[in-house]
Amino acid sequence: MKQTHIGHLAIFVVNLLFGLNTPITKTILLSDYDISPLALTCFRYIGAAVAFWLAALVFRAPEASRKDILLFVLASVFGIVLNQTTFVVGLSTTSPVDASIVVTLTPIITMIFAAIFIKEPITTKKVVGVLIGCAGALLLILTSNTLGSAPRSLFGNMLCLLSCLSYGLYLTLFRNLIARNHPLTLMKWMFLFGTVMLLPFSYDSVIHVPYSSIPLDIYLRIGYVVLVATFLTYLLIPIGQVRIRPTTLTMYNYLQPVVTTLLAVYMGLDTFGWHKALAALLVFLGVYVVTKSKSRQQMEEQKLKEENKAQ
């Protein structure tokens, strides 16, 4: 399998699992067991940190340099702390549908950051692909009338936007750091630093959770959030990051509202009509168009070939 294909598969699975995670997280926050957004996020950080450190020991992941460990602190601010904490807190005050609308802005944000920081060209094909995918995602979530039962909140939506901004910066600014470190090495340090940063703010929420009263199904959902939607996904993200371009990678965010709606249909919360089929088609078409756009390296190689032919 080609390296780019591996990258696309990894990011596809990541967004599939993230799509399932949004409604699951919302049900945990809406439960009657006083699990606050900060407490749930802290569970996520601690569980993932332990899992990544154990996995790094078992698979003997290489150690990072001291310089990179210091960079992990900054990377964890954007890729872990701001990204995850602001999204979960935002989701607690807005609906999954609203959160999905905001997530569709991530490719546009990343495209702008990539153009600014790594001089990634904004081609016509790339812009068209982003707009097609955005149209599909918006069609899907705006025609859903069942997942938007939570009160809409400008504050929550702004926090979700901040999550997208931080993730776009993480994908763009730390691509080289990600490329030169093993995924287990990268994630064990980032989640460790994320835990250290969040714990002082979440300690009170964590100790007041009524653990003995929580039923098994809620624990299973928390387990999914920690081990599947965090440990597994953040293990796969670096695999995709070093194999596909930032804008292409974030295009897969459009899969999340598709998966969220399909889960709602499966649970009997929604129906699947022609508009959802059209939305799904637009999402995948948008991803395809962006993946076919040329990177800066490809454009430079093409220009060099044309110059050689002219000579």
List the helices and strands and how they pair.
Blueprint: H1 3-29, H2 37-58, H3 66-93, H4 96-103, H5 106-117, H6 124-142, H7 154-173, H8 175-179, H9 183-207, H10 216-241, H11 246-251, H12 255-266, H13 274-291, H14 296-310
Helix pairs in contact: 1-10, 1-12, 2-3, 2-9, 2-10, 3-7, 3-9, 4-6, 4-7, 5-7, 6-13, 9-10
Domain EamA: 6-141, 155-291
Keywords: Cell membrane, Membrane, Transmembrane, Transmembrane helix
Transmembrane segments: 9-29, 35-57, 69-93, 99-118, 127-148, 154-174, 186-203, 218-237, 249-267, 273-291
Report on the structure:
The protein has 311 residues and is mainly α. It has one domain (3-126, 150-246). It has 14 helices and no strands. The two termini are 37 Å apart. Mean pLDDT is 84; it is low at 146-151. It comes from Candidatus Onthomorpha intestinigallinarum.
Q: Which properties best describe this structure?
A:
single chain; 311 residues; mainly alpha; 78% helix
Order of helices and strands: HHHHHHHHHHHHHH
Structural class: mainly alpha
User: In one word, what is the shape?
Assistant: globular
> What is the overall pLDDT average?
84
Please tell me the total number of domains.
Answer: 1
The helix content is over 70%
Number of helices: 14
Keywords: Cell membrane, Membrane, Transmembrane, Transmembrane helix
Subcellular location: Cell membrane
Protein name: DMT family transporter
Membrane topology: Multi-pass membrane protein
